[in-house]
């Protein structure tokens, strides 16, 4: 039993983690076949197991410093056969932990209803002369899932529900909402944000279906008198986020109000200087709708939840442990399984902390955070053999004994049992 490091294994493990990162990012970006998050995350971690596992296996084939020459001579074929088992193990652990992470506790409801609250006051003639806000809303409706419901509220001096909540399960309903939005136009009058949010809450309360959460997208270019402490009480109590968009806001008080509304309700504020960019902002808000996976930032009102933070960190700890034990199974070595497993637990803990505190909702930054987490995961596992000593020791003892028994003694024939007369 010795403490030792295979630097080639460390290098190949990092390279495997890098390749897994590229493949994983393609998976997250393309999301083939509209895979549910549970399956998607499971496949992501299976890819990680493939990259890191294959890298470690190739390194030990070239330079078997950890597992010994006897492994390479006798059990290499067995190791290749066991590699898929590690993929299945990581897929199972990742999927189960993603399932747990997506569970809603404490009355939390998945957000399915979206209320778009759109400013059509007179000032919009300057802020959005081309009515890009209506085009953005229409585009979003066309892209929303079939299990969503949508409503539209417009406001100037007064607020009006132009489209009550309607399910988008049929193309006819979707076309109806689109037609309503196409008929909207800028009016005269001021900016009554208070009345708009009151009408939006009325729309939400009109839906009697339990188990459905709601959120609001509020777009405005102005300012109005609004008491966030009292007028947002029901939003806060029910956990309904108001995502606000400030369009071409020159008055800092208007921007401050929209930021305050978003912060109070657990939503996000978006500052948009050009109305032509509204389509992308609407889509970004929708893409973050209830987005809660182990690999992305929590964008619902559980964003600051210590419970979900703990579940994510625990999930990565278990993923790392499973990856380490899986590598030990691949090499058919109980000492490596113990060392890699302990290293996996430590690396998974660090990877979980990196994801929990590093993800911020920006695509490039989040990708780099995931890359760092994967490299830390791969590196610590590879280096942990210097902390916990390793040596040769088969996991499959029966296989090891039969293999040893089958091997002839060096240069001598196997002794033959005399079946002749007993005692003579």
From TrEMBL:
It holds the Pfam family VWA. It comes from the Bacteria. SMART domains: VWA. Gene3D superfamilies: von Willebrand factor, type A domain. The chain crosses the membrane at residues 36-61, 82-101, 307-331, 340-359, 371-391. Residues 113-285 form the VWFA domain. Residues 401-424 are annotated as: Disordered. Coiled coil: none annotated. Keywords: Membrane, Transmembrane, Transmembrane helix. InterPro entries: CLCR, VWF_A, vWFA_dom_sf. This is VWFA domain-containing protein. It comes from Paenibacillus jilunlii.
């Amino acid at each position: 039993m010795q403490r030792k490091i295979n630097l080639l294994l460390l290098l190949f493990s990092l390279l495997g983690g890098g390749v897994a990162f590229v493949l994983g990012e393609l998976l997250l970006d393309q999301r083939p076949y509209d895979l549910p998050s549970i399956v998607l995350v499971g496949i992501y971690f299976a890819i990680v197991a493939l990259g890191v596992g294959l890298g470690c296996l190739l390194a030990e084939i070239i330079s078997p410093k950890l597992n010994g020459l006897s492994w390479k001579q006798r059990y290499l074929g067995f190791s290749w056969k066991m590699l898929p088992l590690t993929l299945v193990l990581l897929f199972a652990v990742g999927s189960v932990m993603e399932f747990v992470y997506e569970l809603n506790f404490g009355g939390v409801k998945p957000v399915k209803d979206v209320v778009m609250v759109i400013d059509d006051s007179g000032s919009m003639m300057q802020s959005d002369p081309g009515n890009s806000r209506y085009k953005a809303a229409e585009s979003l409706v066309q892209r929303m899932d079939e299990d969503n419901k949508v409503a539209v509220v417009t406001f100037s001096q007064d607020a009006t529900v132009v489209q009550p909540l309607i399910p988008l399960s049929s193309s006819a309903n979707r076309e109806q909402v689109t037609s309503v939005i196409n008929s909207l136009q800028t009016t005269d009058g001021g900016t009554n944000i208070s009345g708009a949010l009151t009408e939006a809450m009325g729309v939400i309360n009109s839906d009697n279906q339990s188990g459905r959460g709601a959120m609001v997208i509020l777009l405005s270019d102005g300012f109005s008198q609004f008491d966030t402490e009292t007028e947002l009480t029901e939003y806060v109590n029910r956990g309904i986020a108001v995502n606000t968009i400030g369009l071409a806001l020159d008055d800092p008080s208007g921007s401050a109000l929209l930021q305050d509304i978003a912060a109070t309700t657990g939503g996000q504020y978006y500052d948009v200087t050009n109305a032509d960019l509204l389509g992308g902002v609407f889509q970004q808000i929708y893409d973050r709708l209830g987005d809660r996976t182990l690999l992305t930032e929590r964008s619902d009102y559980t964003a600051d939840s210590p419970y979900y933070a703990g579940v994510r960190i625990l999930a990565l700890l278990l993923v790392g442990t499973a990856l380490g034990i899986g590598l030990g199974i691949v090499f058919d070595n109980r000492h490596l399984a113990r060392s890699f497993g302990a290293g996996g637990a430590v690396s998974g803990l660090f990877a979980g902390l990196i994801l929990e505190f590093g993800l911020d909702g920006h695509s490039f930054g989040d990708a780099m955070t995931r890359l760092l987490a994967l490299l830390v995961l791969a590196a610590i596992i590879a280096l942990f053999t210097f902390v916990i000593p390793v040596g040769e020791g088969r996991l499959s003892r029966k296989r090891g004994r039969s293999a040893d028994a089958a091997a002839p003694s060096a240069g001598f024939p196997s002794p033959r049992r005399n079946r002749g007369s007993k005692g003579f």
